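Entry 14: structure prediction run for Regulatory protein ArsR. Input pasted below.
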Amino acid sequence: MVLSLSEYKVEFLRGLADNTRLKIVEALKEQEKTVSELVETVGSSQANISTHLKLLKTTGIVKSLSKGKYMYYSLRDEAICEFLNSLEEMLILMRKKAFEGA
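Run finished. Output tokens:
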């Protein structure tokens, strides 16, 4: 089934709409990591991290690469980092305006 652009946007945003998944994505902004490294960084169980990684792969946010006996996860595209940085800037600006009463 091919998703419309609108449906793809919803799926992409749903992929980010969870605290654990967002922590995983933020950790992967720095460099690729194994599940064990993500468990340590995010502070969640291996089963939980693996479940979230599966959804992140399905939504096209994360990709994986097998190297020897380890599976490494990374962001699919640098544009995801740019999107998150733009989102942070927008949220900071919106929050500032809300506090100023604008």
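Notes: The first helix runs from residue 5 to 16. Will compare against the previous run tomorrow.
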